[in-house]
Design a protein that fits this description.
The chain has one domain. Helix 1 runs antiparallel to helix 3, helix 1 packs parallel to helix 4 and helix 4 runs antiparallel to helix 5. The relative contact order is 0.13. Helix content is about 80%, strand content about 0%. The mean pLDDT is about 85. By secondary structure, the protein is an all-alpha fold. It has six helices and no strands. It starts with a helix and ends in a 5-residue tail after the last helix.
């Protein structure tokens, strides 16, 4: 598989796992975090297990990306940033989280950073400032 596909799988798996954990943890939020019943309820939840499997699959894909000759200096920030953006946007849509102006400006800078990292040839072709 190509590095791009594996990196996108990392983003999808991590996003799914983060969101599924948030959904399931909220469903048992009445119990105390220190309660054995709370942890038994989580451990018996198939959706929590699916989140763990998604984390594991994401880890496996990421391990292949790292082992390849891929440029980790580009791939890691792009993958991490895309995960941050997707989790944030889905949280706004599903959980009605509020985005502040700071969040929006930060998102724009993240997208700009991804664009710059992936299009470094544009910067290299630009004439140097004197």
């Amino acid at each position: 598989m190509s590095t791009i596909i594996l990196s996108l799988l990392v983003v999808l798996c991590t996003t799914y796992a983060q969101l599924m954990l948030r959904i399931r943890l909220h469903s048992v939020s009445d119990a105390s975090l220190l309660s054995l019943d709370y942890w038994m309820l989580l451990l018996s939840d198939a959706w929590v297990w699916s989140a763990g499997i998604a984390f594991g699959l994401g880890f496996a894909c990421w391990s292949v990306v790292i082992a390849s000759s891929a440029n980790i200096a580009k791939i890691y920030p792009v993958t991490t940033s895309l995960t941050l953006l997707t989790v944030s946007l889905i949280n706004v849509m599903i959980f009605e989280d509020k985005l502040s102006l700071t969040n929006l400006v930060g998102g724009v800078f993240i997208i700009l950073g991804i664009f710059l990292l992936l299009n470094h040839s544009l910067l290299e072709a630009a004439p140097a400032a004197v």
